[in-house]
């Protein structure tokens, strides 16, 4: 029957710092899928979460475990087998409540499963004490290292099956690793596009600011030139050919010529700068390129999101297959041990 998921949610996973036993260490960069699994063969419940290519939570639930809500969106439980404390941060209080209720429900189910398993073991041991020889337990503890006989072929087939299942697990892990490499490549491309877009936007803003500043300077120069021209016209209309007005007129004429020259130079500089911007960058071209880059960034983000969703689904499915393979390997090992005992008889 294998191991089947019975409840899934998404949360940020943390583990307690093994040194201080106080601080939390993030086990994943983003929220990941956290699932309850039930193994029908071994009658155990587990909490499993996979981040990247490794399991960041693999906790077998026992009846003495307790899930504690430490805030409105955070809860934790201690796993003595893993020698750690797991913490989960949820996006909503409702998700935390649902997980806590499911933990409580699964813990009760684990207690009932353990009681049934103990009853079954007691019945099995009683039957073995009646039907089996006294020294059978010694065979279970010390199986022979070398086997010769008609059962050797069956044992070899069991070992071959173990090798095949191990190879399948390695292939699945390789697939998950390739998915992570693809995700990293997409993230790198997205970062490059965002960086290029930011540089282009900054250059465009700087060019616009420079143009506006030069326009303001030209307007100020033009106003000053007009004022000096008006003063010069007044002097020419009311002044005489002798006296201090001639000196003032000469100074105003010189100032006017200097301002006109400066105005002409600034005007040429503005034209040249505008032409350079249009020729080298081009506002319209920069805007179109910016729009194109934004479109590529959006496409990359959508592709990345889709890839992450596909990878999460693939990881969940692959983890389920790996867990099933683990169970099969465990069953094959049990079968091999049984064959060893039968051959030894």
UniProtKB/TrEMBL annotation:
Keyword Coiled coil: yes
GO biological process: G protein-coupled glutamate receptor signaling pathway
GO cellular component term of the entry, any: postsynaptic density
Keywords, in A-Z order: Coiled coil, Cytoplasm, Synapse
Residues spanning the signal sequence: none
Annotated Gene3D superfamilies: 1.20.5.1700, Pleckstrin-homology domain (PH domain)/Phosphotyrosine-binding domain (PTB)
Subcellular location: Cytoplasm; Postsynaptic density
Pfam family, one: WH1
Annotated ranges, domain WH1: 1-110
Sections of the chain in a coiled coil: 197-317
Coiled coil in keyword set: yes
First-listed, main subcellular location of the protein, grouped into a coarse class: cytoplasm
One function term, GO molecular function aspect: G protein-coupled glutamate receptor binding
Annotated family: Belongs to the Homer family.
Protein name per the record: Homer scaffold protein 3
